[in-house]
Amino acid sequence: LSHVMATTFFRSIFRVLPLLLLLSPVNSSSCAMGNRTTQIREKYENILSHDIDELVNMSAEYRDRCCKNKKHENSKVFFCNDTQEIESLQSMACNMLRFFHKQKISKDYRWKAALVSCGTLQVLQCKCERHKKDKVCMQVNTHNKDTEKSEQSKKKCNQEFCELKENISSLRSCWNKFEKIIFR
Amino acid sequence: MQGPAPLWWPCSPQTAQDVASSCVGRTGAGTAQRKEGAEEPAWVPGAADGDVPCLPRAPLGHGTATHRCGAQWCLSLVGVECVLFNEEYMTCMWGSRETLTANYSLYYWYENRSPVEECKHYLQDQGVSIGCYFNRSEIIQFQPFRVLINASLGSRTLKILSKPMELQDLVKPEAPVNLTIRNMSSNQLQLTWTSPYPKAQCLEHAVKYKSNKDTNWTHQVKGDIFSLPSVDYEKYYTFYVRSKINSYCGSTQLWSEWSVPVVWGSNSTSKGRATDVPTPLLWRCAGQGSMSPQLFPGTAEEQLHWFWIHTVLIPIASCLLLLVLVVLLVRMERVWVILMPRIPNPSKNFDELFITHNGNFQEWAGVPKDVVESFRPNYSENICYVSELPPKDSCEPLWESGNHPPSVMPGAPAAPREHSPYKNSYVGV
User: Fold this and answer.
1) Its pTM surpasses 0.80
2) Which stretches make up the Fibronectin type-III domain (chain B) (predicted)?
């Protein structure tokens, strides 16, 4: 009997352990731990908010008639969850980075959006799950965009542009929520 | 047929029954038209978005656009406006007093969050619903908010669906209160205030001020404190403050109302000039829209009093003083002579010349008569020949040595009556 009990005990352990190993990456955060709300707020107000304003102004300059009444995929990334503003911002910023290589979107706009995404991740001290996106930030931070000739013509409205625009709007709103609620 | 822009558009009826569906036209923001096969006309947005179809037989009103084409009336509502007042309550308005008489109902929801609910508190004007009131518990910020307005008239119903709204971008804070001015060193004023809005870090403020000598207001957007350097103690300043949600917490252009003003300085009509150090007059406003009356005792009367002194008494007194001075000046010769000295007149010295001697200058001057005679142009003088008598026992007279006639005067003129420059030379003894 003791032998059977021991076998049963170890079998149950071995079933649980793999389950724990499987679930642990989902629960772990890729953002730095610790209460850094004051530092985050300072960097947002002094630096990042101005870049976000510029990006929003750029959004208004492009044609967006094709964006009316459209529902987009991955709509869950556009919500800023209560008490999870930092995680929501990280998710939005990482999602925005995938537009960096979309050729249908104006290059200036893509660069600015990537700059804001990388700035958000830097301020929050977060990383994206896919390391490929971190390479975008290295490219954006080291490459001097000003030396290149900026585009003269604006591209036609397309769905990728609409998605990026909505993502930017959500990111800004989530930052507003973070700033407003931080001193609740 | 075009009427007054931008609310009128032509109406082209197709059938007697389907009058509303035939409305085709435009407003300043877009076009309402019915596409083939569609039951109701649809709004094709231009500069602004929104569904604005047509509703027949409706009178013209504020916030609506109508057109009359024969017996047909078309209605369109231009949209709904929602404002959060200090994050305490919200109103969504779609009309005003002139809104057409129809049955309105509002439904709202937060996208992907809550079920559709009807407005619990309608705002009415003369029995017509023109808006909806939301209390704090019904307001959720940072969630896309949408409303649907049903307008029914007779058998026809109009539905207007709003765009998703972000309520944090529709916040209008209350005006600042407790405006206080402090005198800092080196002629500097510091203005502070408090805001009824709960999250002060989300506000930006604007100050406008001017003195009693300025014509235009000066506007400045500031943080929480406003400083005015180098104030003039002779001037009288008025300050207003208003607030807005800053870009860190939202994206809105809704400023609050201007606060109750605060003033500082010495009024130029006051008697404060007699003192060496002008005393600044400080007011502190007790609350919004109210001022304590005892803080301004008799201000209007004092102002009227000083007005009469400045514009009437002082000019009259100045004129009288001037008149007295002029009279004194004219009457008192001693003063007049000092101011206007007499021009010297030497004629008295020559009275004897003109009166006694009849202008005869020589006579008056005492010039001898013969000198006077000598100055006459026709003067002639007889030549006085002078000869020397020879002695008795001496030699022959000199004239015998030659044939020369005796010349009594060496160099004597042959024609003594001739005019000669030498004739006046004295040749005789």
Assistant:
1) no
2) 175-272
Helix/strand/coil percentages in chain A, nearest 5: 70, 0, 30
Taking the CA atoms of B327, B331, B332 and B333 in sequence, report the sign of the dihedral they define.
Answer: positive
Smallest Cα–Cα separation from B166: which of B136, B146, B196? B146
Place of tokens 């008239």: B153
Q: Which two tokens stand for residue B236?
A: 């009288």
Which residues on B lie below 8 Å from A166 (Cβ)? none
pLDDT score at B290:
38
- CA quadruple A26, A176, B106, B159: dihedral positive or negative? negative
Kindly identify which residue of chain A lies nearest to residue B161, measuring between CA atoms. Answer: A69
In the predicted model, residues of chain B with pLDDT beneath 50 are 1-31, 43-76, 269-298, 395-429
Tell which A residues from 102 to 161 touch B, by Cβ distance under 8 Å.
none
pLDDT recorded at residue B36: 56
Q: What is the nearest CA distance from B250 to chain A, expressed in angstroms?
A: 6
Give the CA count within 13 Å in the CB-facing half-sphere of B79.
15
**String of b and e for A73-110 (b: at least 16 CB within 10 Å)?**
eeeebbbbeeeebbbbbbbbbbbbbbbbebeebbeebb
Dist CA B203 CA B195 (whole Å) = 9
CA A56 from centroid of its chain's CA atoms: 16
From CA B214, how far away is CA B230, in angstroms rounded? 15
d(CA B35, CA B348): 121
Q: How many CA atoms lie within 13 A of B33 on its CB side?
A: 9
Residues 6+ apart with CB under 8 A from A35: none
- What's the rounded Cα separation, in Å, for the pair A29 and A15? 25
Q: For the purposes of burial, counting CB atoms within 10 Å of the CB of B254, is it exposed (0-12), middle (13-18) or buried (19 or more)?
A: middle
- Tell me: cis bond preceding B405? Omega within 30 of 0 counts: no
pLDDT number for residue B97? 54
The answer to whether the beta carbons of residues B423 and B384 sit under 8 Å apart is no
Q: For B25-78, what is each residue's pLDDT tens digit?
A: 333 344 455 555 555 555 444 433 333 444 444 333 333 343 333 333 444 455
Contact B202 A179 (CB under 8 A): yes
pLDDT tens digit sequence for B302-360: 667 777 888 889 999 999 999 998 888 878 877 778 878 888 888 878 888 888 888 88
Q: Which of B150, B144, B198, B151 is nearest to B174 (CA)?
A: B198
3-state secondary structure of A10: helix
Residue B158 near residue B77 (C-beta atoms within 8 A): yes
Are B52 and B27 spatial neighbours (Cβ–Cβ below 8 Å)? yes
Find chain B residues with C-beta within 8 A of A173's C-beta: 142, 166, 168
Calculate how close chain B gets to A103, using CA atoms only, in Å: 28
Report d(CA B266, CA B212) in Å as an integer: 10
Interface test with A, best of B49, B165, B204, B249 (most A CBs within 10 A): B249
Are the Cβ atoms of B251 and A174 closer than 8 angstroms?
Answer: no
Tokens coding B237: 């300043």
Q: Which ipTM was obtained for this model?
A: 0.76
Contact flag A180-B202 (C-beta cutoff 8 Å): yes
